[in-house]
């Protein structure tokens, strides 16, 4: 019964949303809950689909938004893509394993994909929360980085030591090592996931510092340095490589002539890709047994995944095999490529939806940013959000997407879509969020 504390955020979310509006609750309850509390702890309540902290936080906020704050919501193509992605993911699991196994995935798809997207799209830009949303995310991740110094030193996370007492037997935390050091995982379950999230937080921190949104240059530098430390302590190569590609996107955004810069970088990347692929094939294709280093063995393992699982994925190409029912090859129990894993679990249409999000959102963000003056808020923000997609795309080619990385991805997508379809004002640099609270005496009333 102690696991009932997973529902506590829902009480605060409902109270704040009713009294101060869904935007304030999203900013001050949902974002901190998402980034500061693990998603793998659940309350196994009779009749409920095993809610976690973030489920409890987001559903009341969405309910209040739906009843009171969804005025002038603009539907767009990305809405259809996100809904299709979530629906096909849930349908795939239902067809493969039945409703009993699929019910939690259905709720996770709603709470972890659809609702973060919808709320971020409709609230962040329209309520002038662009800067404040970025600050909340970065400050939460900065706190995680600071707390995780303990994990980096001691080898275990404080989150597990505290919350395991309330959720016995549910701990999904994995301690991993590299170069003799602990790779921090924080409240995200694994260093790989922490690495993706920390790199995204670092990119947002750089944006906030460059635009002086902290109001104090030294404070901004300290927070950015702390985020860099968080990225370093994860020691995850995939997200580090993603960070490099995210930086290249920002190079384009900082250029006075982004189109020629993009063309040059694209030519260099494409030109290097052919010899790079041939070298990778010869280096990684030697097989694990012939590898001469841990790095080469890891690359050989990932290379072999496509050879071993390619035909299996195509057997159930339309809806996949399901999350836990795909035929596992004993020599390759871990599929360290999320695109391949998604193809196996949920099929080609779901994979195409994800790729569409990456391509459609990145292209629109960079086009919108290129049309803005160099150094302007719009250009800096749009290219920062585009750099996040670069981080994710490269990372997912080497690792996987799970726990809070999923919610963050769809939150960023909703935020970016809001920037693109609503008329964005120059964000306020004041210390308080610019939210117009609902002070109507009869809040239940809707006027058509």
Features of this protein?
448 residues, mainly alpha, 16 helices, globular, disordered C terminus, two-stranded antiparallel sheet, 1% strand
Q: Outline of this structure?
A:
The protein is mainly alpha-helical and 448 residues long. The protein has helices spanning 8-20, 22-36, 53-69, 77-97, 99-123, 130-154, 158-163, 191-210, 217-234, 237-254, 258-284, 294-315, 338-346, 348-370, 377-396, 404-421, and strands at residues 176-178, 181-183.
β content, as a range? under 5%
Helix tally equals 16
- Span of the ends, CA to CA: 44 Å
Q: Helical residue percent?
A: 55-70%
| Overall structural domain count | 2
Query: What's the gyration radius in Å?
Result: 22 Å
Q: Let me know the number of strands.
A: 2
Structural class: mainly alpha
Summarize model confidence as the mean pLDDT: 88
Largest sheet: 2 strands, antiparallel
Strand order of the largest sheet: 1-2
Shape: globular
* SSE run: HHHHHHHEEHHHHHHHHH
Low-pLDDT stretches are 428-448
């Amino acid at each position: 019964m102690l696991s009932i504390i997973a529902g506590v955020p829902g009480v605060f979310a409902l109270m704040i949303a009713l009294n101060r509006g869904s935007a304030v609750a999203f900013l001050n309850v949902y974002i901190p809950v998402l980034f500061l509390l693990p998603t793998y702890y659940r309350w196994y309540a009779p009749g409920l689909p095993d809610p976690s902290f973030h489920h409890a936080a987001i559903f009341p906020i969405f309910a209040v938004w739906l009843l009171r704050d969804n005025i002038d919501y603009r539907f767009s193509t990305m809405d259809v893509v996100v809904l299709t992605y979530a629906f096909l993911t849930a349908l795939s699991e239902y067809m493969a394993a039945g409703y009993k196994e699929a019910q939690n995935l259905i709720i996770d798809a709603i709470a972890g994909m659809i609702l973060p997207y919808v709320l971020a799209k409709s609230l962040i830009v329209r309520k002038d929360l662009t800067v404040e949303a970025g600050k909340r995310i970065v400050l939460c991740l900065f706190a995680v980085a600071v707390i995780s110094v303990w994990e980096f030193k001691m080898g275990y996370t404080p989150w597990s030591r505290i919350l395991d007492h309330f959720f016995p037997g549910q701990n999904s935390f994995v301690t991993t090592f590299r170069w003799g050091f602990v790779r921090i995982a924080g409240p995200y379950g694994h260093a790989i996931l922490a690495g993706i999230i920390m790199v995204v937080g670092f990119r947002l921190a750089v944006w906030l510092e460059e635009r002086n949104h902290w109001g104090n240059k030294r404070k901004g530098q300290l927070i950015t340095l702390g985020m860099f430390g968080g990225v370093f302590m994860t020691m995850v190569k995939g997200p580090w490589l993603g960070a490099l590609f995210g930086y290249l996107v920002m190079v384009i955004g900082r250029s006075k002539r982004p189109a020629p810069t993009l063309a040059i970088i694209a030519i260099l990347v494409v030109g290097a890709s052919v010899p790079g692929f041939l070298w990778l094939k010869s280096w990684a294709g030697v097989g694990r047994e012939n590898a001469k280093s841990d790095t080469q063995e890891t690359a050989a393992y990932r290379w072999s995944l496509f050879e071993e699982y390619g035909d299996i994925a195509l057997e159930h190409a339309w809806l996949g095999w399901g999350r836990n029912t795909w035929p596992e090859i004993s020599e390759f129990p871990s599929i360290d490529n999320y695109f391949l894993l998604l193809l196996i679990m949920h099929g080609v249409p779901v994979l195409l939806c994800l790729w569409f999000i990456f391509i459609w959102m990145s292209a629109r963000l960079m086009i919108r940013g290129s049309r803005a003056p160099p150094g302007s808020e719009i250009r800096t923000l749009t290219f920062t959000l585009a750099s996040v997609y670069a981080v994710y795309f490269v990372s997912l080619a080497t690792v996987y997407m799970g726990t809070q990385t999923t919610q963050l991805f769809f939150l960023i997508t909703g935020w970016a879509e809001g920037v693109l379809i609503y008329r964005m004002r120059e964000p306020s640099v004041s210390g308080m969020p610019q939210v117009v609270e609902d002070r109507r005496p009869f809040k239940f009333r809707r006027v058509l």
